[in-house]
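Lecture 7 notes: from sequence to structure.

We start with a single chain of 334 residues. Read the sequence below before looking at the structure.
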Amino acid sequence: MATNKHATIRYQALDRCFSNRGRKYFIDDLIEACNQAIFDYSGIANGVKKRQVQEDIIFMESESGYAIELDRIRENRRVYYRYSDSNFSINNQPLNEQEEAQLREALLTLTRFKGMPQFAWIEELTVKLESELGLKGTDQKVIEFEQNEYLVGLEHISRLYNAIVSKQSLNVAYKSFKSDDLHKSIFSPHYLKQYNNRWFVLGAVSGFESSTTYALDRIHSLSESSATYQASSIDYEEHFEDVIGVTVPNETRLEKIVLKVNAGLYPYIKTKPLHGSQKVKEVNEDCSIIELTVYPNYELESVLLSYGEGIEIVAPKSLRDKLKERLKNTLNNY
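Now the structure, written as tokens:
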């Protein structure tokens, strides 16, 4: 069975050929039609060979495929192909097993967004597909994503997303955890990011050049502003490559963080790296030494503290001293 990413495009191209009674499609014609369809879709040329098209035909004739009835008509030494029934098309058929499995898998993935305002259509779509396309329903839950549908601030995602796409500035009323005062600003949102099951928006506050980060659960209100949208030159994917979390401190530099990990914790850290830059420097019987290259920030500190006695900061001294002080303050609470 053909399973590569262009399979559906090839099936549709072959379907058009088999349905066309005004032309005879020999194997070379079918190959050309498939290649043209893929080129029109992706710009990739000459990707399909004779063997692939033959395998596609076998799959389309199978019960796992579309169960098509195909005539092979010999003309001299060549054979051309067409549907036995001139009115047949795979697009008029119910979903086959493969399509049903793929569609259900896609819906299962989409359910992670349930509860978020802009994705309220997912439940309606699921019911519609199950009833009209004959998807087999199931009450058994076999996978769960980490998504808190009751998280405060989710109602702002749709407006922020639309403002980013349409380059619309907003009036924002925001209250940080450090102040009881409501701070109002004109804000040009640039990027939405989720970290540790919380949502954040990054953008520019009018009058400031540096990027500002707002936690969505601290936003009290949003409304459209008539102020000019302040565009960003920041590549946010690159912006977050060297940090853990969402905070990129303005006055810090990229540093090598050297950590000593005890033997009991090391297998966990090895299979779930703290950061993409993680490198293993030594592996010993009682401990291992790993190295990260990141910007020190609050999120990094929180991650390291969460492992308790399992991790010791070897370098830099500034980070080691800072966490040592935080641990002393923690002990004073007990």
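The chain has a mean pLDDT of 84. Keep this in mind for problem set 3.
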